[in-house]
């Protein structure tokens, strides 16, 4: 035996999780809803998805190669996920250049300015969507399905018109006005279930978010009794709860923290949807709760095994 | 099946099947001269001083090094022969350790038993003394002197003596095989310990992936004070605090508390067997069982080998390597130490020798933490591994300590599960060592200050 032996600290075996294969599984989980979106909303949606992914990956690569001169990490697929999520949150009619500007904003300003993967304080796709919603309000809220433009079911409910609401079945499949990837509720739920099954996500955040939201919509009831179910299936609640609020970097790490965070997202969504200016509340709720994550983390550190119940280790507040 | 367990933990691939059904083989090379090396330290506590000198002849089972320190254990030669040298030799840790080198004559001529030195048949009052004399330390790998464990403070009443037969490390099977092949000796050893602690109940805790061992122990156990307890298969089930939690539902308080604070003593399976050997037969610790396994070994085996034998002989006895190993590990793959060379002696803590190929022992490149929280979920001590890692990397050792870092048991569950392959355990080892160094420095300074102030007062 004359090979060199590797000497390193234990453990010497490793689980199959890597950042890259986790991101790969997220992409796989997101794909069916996107295919359904393209099917119902038209081929143009595919162009938007491609533009966002390409813009995200290229801007990350250019930034790392020519501006920061650091290691290029586009291989971890996180930029692809960001592009995909942003595209899923855009209407199919969005001008491509706007989608590209949004993608570059997400990667450069929200992600890389803060230090890249794992360091951003808010979800890049959501922050880009919020920026676009404020910059181009009309392009971001024009919905066309089957050649007819009209409001999303959520906007219609908010405006008090319940006549033209799609059936629950159409909502589950995704045959309604909305953003590219947010309409097909059934496939989003299946994607989430797959990630939970693979151990990528825990069901804590999505379930807490959706259930708390359902209870709150029932409480804040602004119309008939069917609203909670309709609300659950429209306006990006599912994609938000399953794929956006669960973003590793911008959600709390402890179990207790995750419950608080998800309940906070649900409360803000209910408040914005009921009394706010926008019919849609998921993006802003998650963004606001993202900002609260360091605080939540600080106060929900798990009790060390064997420490007294009232907390043995005093937080000293990041000295 | 809802078997008792703890919160957290991981499920690494077990790899037990390689040696599960291999009976323990005795390996005692009789060629002469053959070097046997006995490092003076490598247990928890004070290192020993040699009590033989170069040129002395020794017998198999003769004491060759000892110390007056309480927390320590003497060393015995496993072979008869001549002391060749007392010099630094490389140990499994990769460090040079002062060692006694003995040239074996291949005869294994036995030395008088420990009972002869005692002069009478041992009574319970002699047990702890005899165990100390036998050089027994925790044979699971940590090497904490057993007689210290068996001497808890007088005010602590021991109500559980737990035999740690979880053997949660992947690949290792030495405890499993010992239970199948010598159940009566283990039970008798436990009864000896229960004689020291008459108020205690004996519990043999076994992970449920060893059904044959559970069955054998249950069949052989006739003592109503001893209970066999299957535990859920999960790493690190065999960590002291985890097994106490699983068996009794009690949490051992944070460091520096000890199991005795919750009335528990945890002993490894082979350790209990050696207690039987020391009390019943007057045998010191001169041999141990080692699982030689891994995907690079031709024929994985469980070997009973004399201490001091070169690890290379163990691998040769298993047919050598089938493929070039990338890593050779002393112990299990989760907590074992990667060795630099095969030419190091088997010591009391060598529970396994694993040769892993690139397929299993892949060392991934670190990438940025994505805050996925998997480490928090799996940490059996309920720490926040990634937060502690950040503190160590910024050299904020006080923060590391304040967030409970000293409670880390280095089980490696966090690093095993980390998708970014962060070298987490490396950080905690650094953090703990730095905190301990700072404590020693502070203590030394306080002492020096007190010494400096004393003459001033005298004036």
Nearest-integer average pLDDT of chain A: 86
- For the record, the count of structural domains of chain B works out to 3
Number of strands of chain B: 17
CATH architecture identity of the largest domain in chain B: 3-Layer(aba) Sandwich
**How would you classify the helix and strand content of chain A by structural class?**
mainly alpha
Structure summary, number of beta strands of chain A: 2
Largest interface: A-B, 46 and 71 residues
Q: What fraction strand of chain A? A: under 5%
Gyration radius of chain B, rounded: 22 Å
Give me the number of helical elements of chain A. 14
**What is the name of the CATH superfamily of the largest domain in chain B?**
NADH-ubiquinone oxidoreductase 51kDa subunit
- How far apart, in Å, are the first and last alpha carbons of chain B? 74 Å
Order of helices and strands of chain A: HHHHHHEEHHHHHHHH
Description:
- The complex is a heterodimer of chains A (319) and B (459).
- With 319 residues, chain A is mostly helical.
- Chain A has a single domain, classed as Ammonium transporter fold.
- Chain A contains 14 helices and two strands.
- Chain A has helices at 19-41, 44-67, 78-88, 96-111, 124-135, 137-140, 153-159, 168-173, 185-198, 204-219, 227-233, 237-244, 255-275, 282-299; strands spanning 144-145, 148-149.
- In chain A, strands 1-2 form a two-stranded antiparallel sheet.
- In chain A, strand 1 and strand 2 form a beta hairpin.
- In chain A, helix 2 (44-67) packs parallel to helix 4 (96-111).
- By secondary structure, chain B is of the alpha/beta class.
- Chain B has three domains: 16-281, NADH-ubiquinone oxidoreductase 51kDa subunit (Rossmann fold), CATH 3.40.50.11540; 287-356, Roll (Ubiquitin-like (UB roll)), CATH 3.10.20.600; 374-440, no CATH class.
- Helices cover 31% and strands 19% of the residues of chain B.
- Chain B is built from 14 helices and 17 strands.
- Chain B has helices at 114-118, 124-133, 146-149, 174-181, 183-196, 211-220, 240-248, 269-281, 311-317, 374-378, 385-393, 397-402, 413-417, 424-458; strands spanning 25-26, 34-39, 49-50, 57-58, 62-66, 75-77, 81-90, 96-104, 160-165, 201-207, 226-231, 264-268, 287-293, 301-306, 327-330, 337-338, 352-356.
- In chain B, strands 1-14-13-17-15-16 form a six-stranded mixed sheet, with helices on both faces. Chain B has a four-stranded antiparallel sheet with strand order 2-8-7-4, with no helix packed on it. A four-stranded parallel sheet of chain B has the order 11-10-9-12, with helices on both faces.
- In chain B, a hairpin with an 8-residue loop joins strand 5 (62-66) and strand 6 (75-77).
- In chain B, helix 2 (124-133) crosses helix 5 and helix 5 crosses helix 8.
- Chain B starts with 24 loop residues before the first strand and ends with a helix.
- The model of chain B has no long low-confidence stretch (mean pLDDT 91).
- At the A-B interface, helix 1 of A face strand 15, strand 16, helix 10, helix 13 and helix 14 of B.
């Amino acid at each position: 035996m004359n090979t060199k032996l590797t000497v390193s600290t234990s453990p010497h075996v490793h689980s199959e999780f890597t950042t890259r294969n986790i991101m790969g599984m997220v992409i796989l989980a997101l794909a069916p809803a996107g295919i359904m979106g393209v099917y119902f909303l038209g081929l143009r949606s595919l162009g938007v998805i491609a533009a966002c992914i390409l813009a995200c990956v290229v801007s990350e690569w250019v930034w790392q190669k020519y501006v920061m001169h650091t290691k290029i990490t586009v291989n971890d697929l996180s930029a692809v996920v960001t592009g995909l999520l942003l595209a899923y949150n855009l209407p199919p009619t969005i001008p491509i250049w706007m989608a590209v500007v949004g993608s570059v904003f997400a990667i450069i300003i929200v992600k890389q300015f803060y230090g890249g993967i794992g360091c951003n304080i808010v979800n890049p796709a959501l922050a880009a969507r919020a920026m676009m919603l404020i910059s181009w309000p009309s392009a971001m809220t024009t919905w066309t399905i089957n050649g007819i433009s009209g409001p999303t079911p959520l906007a219609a409910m908010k405006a008090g018109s319940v006549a033209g609401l799609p059936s629950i079945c159409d909502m589950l499949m995704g045959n309604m006005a909305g953003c590219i990837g947010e309409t097909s509720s059934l496939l989003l739920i299946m994607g989430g279930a797959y990630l939970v099954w693979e151990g990528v996500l825990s069901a804590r955040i999505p379930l807490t978010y959706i259930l708390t939201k359902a209870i709150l919509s029932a409480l804040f009831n602004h119309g008939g009794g069917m609203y909670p179910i309709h609300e659950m299936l429209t306006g990006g609640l599912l994609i938000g709860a399953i794929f956006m609020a669960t973003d590793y970097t911008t959600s709390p790490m402890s179990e207790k923290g995750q419950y608080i965070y998800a309940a906070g997202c649900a409360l803000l969504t209910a408040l914005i949807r009921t009394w706010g200016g926008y019919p849609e509340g998921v993006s802003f709720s998650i963004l606001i709760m993202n900002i609260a994550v360091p605080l939540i983390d600080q106060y929900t550190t798990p009790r060390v095994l064997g420490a007294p119940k009232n907390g043995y280790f005093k937080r000293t507040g990041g000295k | 099946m809802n078997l008792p367990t703890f919160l957290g933990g991981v499920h690494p691939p077990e790899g037990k099947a390689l040696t599960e059904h291999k009976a323990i083989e005795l390996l005692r090379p009789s060629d002469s001269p053959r070097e046997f090396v006995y490092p003076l330290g490598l247990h928890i506590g004070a290192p020993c001083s040699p009590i033989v000198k170069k040129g002395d002849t020794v017998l198999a089972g003769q004491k060759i090094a000892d110390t007056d320190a309480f927390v320590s254990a003497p060393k015995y030669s496993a072979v008869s022969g001549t002391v060749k040298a007392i010099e630094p030799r490389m140990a499994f840790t990769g460090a040079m350790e002062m060692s006694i080198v003995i040239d074996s004559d291949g005869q294994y001529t036995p030395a008088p038993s420990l009972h002869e030195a005692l002069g009478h048949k041992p009574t319970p009052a002699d047990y702890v003394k005899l165990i100390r004399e036998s050089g027994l330390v925790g044979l699971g790998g940590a090497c904490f002197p057993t007689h210290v464990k068996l001497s808890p403070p007088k005010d602590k009443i021991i109500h559980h003596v737990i035999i740690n037969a979880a053997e949660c490390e992947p690949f290792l099977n030495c405890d499993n095989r010992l239970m199948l092949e010598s159940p009566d000796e283990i039970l008798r050893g436990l009864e000896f310990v229960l004689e020291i602690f008459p108020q205690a109940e004996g519990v043999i805790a076994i992970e449920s992936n060893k059904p044959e061992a559970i069955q054998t122990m249950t069949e052989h156990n006739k003592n109503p004070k001893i209970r066999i307890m299957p535990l859920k298969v999960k790493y690190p089930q065999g960590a002291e605090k985890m097994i106490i939690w699983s068996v009794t539902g009690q949490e051992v308080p944070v460091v520096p508390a000890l199991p005795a604070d919750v009335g528990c003593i945890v002993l490894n399976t082979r350790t209990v067997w050696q207690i039987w050997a020391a009390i019943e037969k007057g045998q010191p610790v001169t041999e141990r069982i080692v699982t030689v396994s891994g995907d690079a070994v031709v024929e994985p085996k469980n070997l009973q080998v004399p201490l001091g034998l070169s690890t290379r002989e163990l691998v040769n006895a298993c047919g050598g390597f089938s493929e070039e190993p990338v890593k050779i590990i002393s112990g299990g793959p989760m907590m074992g130490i990667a060795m630099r060379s095969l030419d190091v002696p088997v010591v009391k803590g060598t529970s396994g020798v694993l040769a892993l190929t690139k397929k299993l022992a892949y060392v991934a490149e670190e990438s940025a933490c994505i805050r996925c929280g998997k480490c928090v979920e799996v940490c059996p001590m309920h720490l926040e591994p990634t937060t502690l890692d950040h503190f160590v990397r910024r050299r904020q050792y006080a923060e590391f300590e304040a967030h409970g870092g000293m409670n880390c048991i280095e089980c490696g569950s966090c690093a095993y599960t980390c998708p970014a392959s962060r070298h987490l355990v490396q950080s905690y080892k650094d953090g703990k060592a730095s905190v301990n160094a700072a404590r020693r420095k502070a203590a030394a300074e306080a002492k020096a200050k007190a010494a400096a102030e004393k003459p001033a007062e005298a004036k």
